[in-house]
Fold:
Amino acid sequence: GQNIDQPTEMTATEGAIVQINCTYQTSGFNGLFWYQQHAGEAPTFLSYNVLDGLEEKGRFSSFLSRSKGYSYLLLKELQMKDSASYLCAVRPGEYGNKLVFGAGTILRVKS
Amino acid sequence: EAGVAQSPRYKIIEKRQSVAFWCNPISGHATLYWYQQILGQGPKLLIQFQNNGVVDDSQLPKDRFSAERLKGVDSTLKIQPAKLEDSAVYLCASSLVMGQYNEQFFGPGTRLTVL
Structure:
């Protein structure tokens, strides 16, 4: 089976740093993706990890530990526009490019 | 570069009626996906096409859902007859090819409400 867990909701203050965790148990592993989804809109790609370690991309960083089945998304210098749902998705490594998504973490940024 | 197009954006039907959604992927993208996203959940893959062939339809409720991708470009997803639990956003996504790193680009989705 495939299981991806994320916190349901988080609240943080504008200008602060927030870390959104994701743990996974999947039949295989061939990459982990983070997507951002604003209410009523399509998911948009944020980051991709396939090897252990930290990937940095501007205000966003993503970390992966394959041995622990664990990833986090780090958002720095939070802005109001970062209020959105953040989806963790794993590619189990089966044939094809299938992604298995977590339920998402709703992040609320307050001033 | 134009993104993934979907229509309609919203649809309200009564249970047992039929409905169809249309998707036009990014030009040149060989792989096309249909996802179902129920409120409060992450997207769930229904079907994946590589060109006009089906790669994965293991989670497609085949007794009521069908999808096709004639000519390997546009795709339609049909539900007949619809049930209340089909109320969801139906997202279409596309990617260049299947492979190790392959970002999926999502369309705006069709929000279906079944009454």
Notes: Chain A has no helices and eleven strands.
